[in-house]
Amino acid sequence: MTEYLALVRHGETLPNVLVEKQADGLFYEVSGSDETVTLTEFGVQQIVNAGKWLAKLFTKDNPIARIVVTGYKRTHQSADHIDAQLPYQPERVEDRRFDKRSYGDFWNITYRGVQELHPEEYARFLAEGPLNYIPPGGENYPQLFARVSEGLADVSKSPGNKLIVCHLVVFLAIQRELEGHEDEQVHANYEASALPNAHMRIYKRESPSEPWQPVDVVCE
Fold first, then answer.
1. Whole-prediction pTM value?
2. Fewer Cβ atoms within 10 Å of its own Cβ: the N or the C terminal residue of the chain?
3. Average pLDDT of the segment spanning 149-176
4. Structural domain span for residue 8
């Protein structure tokens, strides 16, 4: 029996808007905890539209059995709006292995901010490279890839169709795992915000022993 795995990036947030603009200052114009950031009005509209599309694909006869979210409010909020469009109630699971990459003490600081306020860390960043550098209290790309891979393996073991509502870098990390993307490509696509908010990707397999294969349907 065919199983499906769907990925959805959460809807737009204020930090998404700010990061895509030219950052001239030392800090981004957001405060508080990254985990509590919520969707913008446009982000809600984006994810509602994604939910309507998913409802057409995953009907009562072929439902989503489980929605996996991260520890961040914006993925829970996105899942809520998707849930509201479905004519059934999937199981909801929080799995922090799909959390976005942690920048630790530097979550709200720009590249210029690190360079001017923490020159020793900026020098280490240049020496180690963007893939391997670990910011204070944070993690690097290999650490992110390892936990996402572990989480994906466990999600894949669960029966039925699965939906993971996640963050851009995690979406890209899953594509790396399933489609063989290079590490450098993940970093480049993340820096370029290559996938818009509420972007979707669908995979399928005919049995649990087979690898996931991308489906030629990409909806935004």
1. 0.94
2. N
3. 98
4. 3-214
